[in-house]
Amino acid sequence: MGKARRPVQIIILTLIVILGGYAIGTAVFGGEKGIPQAGDKPPAFNLRGLDGQVHNLEKYQGKALVINFWATWCKYCVNEMPALQTQWEKWKDQDVVILGINTGEDDLTVANFVKQTGVDFPILFDKKNEIVRKYGVVPMPTTFFVNKRGKIISIHQGELNLKTLNQQIATLVASN
Amino acid sequence: MIKNTKCECGHQNPVGTVLCEACGKPQYEEADHSSSELLEMRYDGVARRSQRANPNFIDKIWNFFSSVKVAVYLISITLVAAMLGTVFTQETMFVKNFDPSTYYKQKYGTIGEIYYMLGLSDTYNSWWFILLLVMIGASLVICSLDRVLPLYRALSKQKIRKHMQFLTRQRVVYQGPVSGRGEEWVNRAIAPLKKKGYRVHTDGGALLAEKQRFSRWGPYVIHIGLIVFLLAVLFRGLPGLHLDEHYWFPEGEITQIPDTNYYLKNEKFTVEYYTEDEMSDEFKQKGKIVPKLFETKAVLYQCVASCNDPLKEPELVEVDRHNIRVNDPLSYKGLQAYQFDFEEVTTLRYVQPTLVDQETGEVYGKFMLRMNDPETEYDVGPYHLKLKDKYLDFGLDENNKPITKSGEPNAPAFLFTITGPGLPEDGGQFIYFPFLQQQELFGQDKLNEALGGINHKLRFDMIAMEDVDFIHFTSFLNIRIDRAMPFVWTGLGIVMVGLIMGFYWQHRRIWLRIDDGILTLGGHTTKNWFGMRREVSSFLETMGIEVDEKSLDNGGNRS
């Protein structure tokens, strides 16, 4: 018994530090909750796309992502669509993917809109507004720039024009 | 300084042992036997595990947590902190957006500001409060380990023949002559002691009788329970274990409860207001409308298949049903839904227009047109309707192109291509506004004329009240999941068992030895000394020794 004393002490103290540290850590950083900020990982999603496929972060692992939240009734979202399309065409060969997450609208509306504007980057349906809530999106549009290592580099609220979008993607591609 | 810890009986004791582990002779005392003070019987005089001659860094930490004094301080500080947390409303109690940095100052003034600055506005989730709990936990674990093992050792191998000093310095002591040989007397003593429920061990002219030893483990059982309790409290923040959120549930809709496998349908929401006669004068003057009762007829569903597959509809199974009222939540397997608030809304859910032939007046039938996710093809009578476009909030942009202004069905409009008898081969277009006033406002007829094709042949009519369905209310429910609660209760249950063990039983021991016809008896109990005295005196009586109960008490009126 006497010889086992030291290892027992060390094991127990280590366990207390680990468990205690975890408990305090979750208290301080609020666990899973909270709106993602620059530097965080983007929250997971699993959404149906207009193409009938499932889209999630795993699918785009290793690619830089521009996650854009939009709706057809949002004027600024509609305005920035051509810019997104242009940049998608420009950057897609460099492993940049633009994802347009539509918020709460149905297939017909979205399909008609996409047909009209001619955008061809992946459009995803967030019918229950679940992902919008997870990403803490308040004003529309909001765009998240995620680098190839799966880290949010910046979050842009409001309309993006061609120039700023180009800059943002350039920074994104350069970022590690 | 190294002390010689070897007792005269030959036993090598660990550092810090008060009484020799074997014979019970007090250590570190003058050899002249002059002291007659009662012995310190805590942990049977055995050294706590952590007491060592040369403590190093780890030992020092260990000793810190091993100290009961430290534990008492920790508990006291935690109690005070917990009390301070009850002074003002905690941040976690607010549901709707509020800013704690200004709230406390505005509501409570400078004190409120200080309260917020000190972090007391979120006491129970603050790092320092959790740190205190963790430290109490560490103290519980280390205190128990440090004492329970030595005590176990001391109690499991007790020497029957104890040192004379050990016996005479117990609180219950008797000394007197007995007749006959010592061994015989001891053998005669076994039966009456057994009758009193003791387990008796003898060693020639010495005897040890012991009962209810298990009650000594009560405090440690309490500790184990408290550790379970603390772990449950500290880790309820783990994903899936705890949820306390407020969500909106529109009437008639099956809404998923975020981050869970559950869906809740608000079948119907009802609110009843106090009539004017029922209200107090004060309220009447204020002209307030006060709700008397609000109730959500709720159905809880659980997703059983294709829950996370966005390509399929989730398969739901009804698991519970309850009319949720204030203080009467729906409760299912740790999930609770409390009525919290409601909002009166008027949102169009669906319309059931009737297709009518303008020329013949013939009615072809009804079809259901949902605002969200409508079907795209309908067959009504001989006609085929294809939904081409949909505007929830119809408007025109600068170029006079139709757009939708919001995601709410404020001014819904539906554009159909209709094919069938009397219509052109490739069909005619028809735009339909469910709201009558909007048909006029936006000029439905004119638009349809411009679109051409139908040429006044068909009409969409709303005939009955039931053809329109609105969401009238949306109910605000507080969804709570606390899967840590069973662990909390288990912990508390164990604590209760420990308390009972310690409270209702006492560990009693009687040692005796006979040297040259003189009986020396010492008795020890964890509590209830009067009972112990009585038991010893009645035992001596059966052995033919008359002795007054009170005279057995060896000084000290501690009870």
Automatic annotation (TrEMBL), chain A:
Coiled coil: none annotated. CDD domains: TlpA_like_family. Residues 36-174 form the Thioredoxin domain. It is found in: Cell envelope. The keyword Isomerase does not apply. This is Redoxin domain-containing protein. Keywords: Cytochrome c-type biogenesis, Disulfide bond, Redox-active center, Signal-anchor, Transmembrane. It comes from Paenibacillus woosongensis. It comes from the Bacteria.
Automatic annotation (TrEMBL), chain B:
The chain crosses the membrane at residues 70-88, 127-149, 220-238, 487-505. GO terms for cellular component: membrane. Keywords: Cytochrome c-type biogenesis, Membrane, Transmembrane, Transmembrane helix. It holds the Pfam family ResB. It is a multi-pass membrane protein. Its main location: membrane. The keyword Membrane applies. The keyword Cell cycle does not apply. Signal peptide: none annotated. It comes from the Bacteria. It is found in: Membrane. Residues 68-536 form the ResB-like domain. One of its GO terms (biological process) is cytochrome complex assembly. This is Cytochrome c biogenesis protein ResB. It comes from Paenibacillus woosongensis.
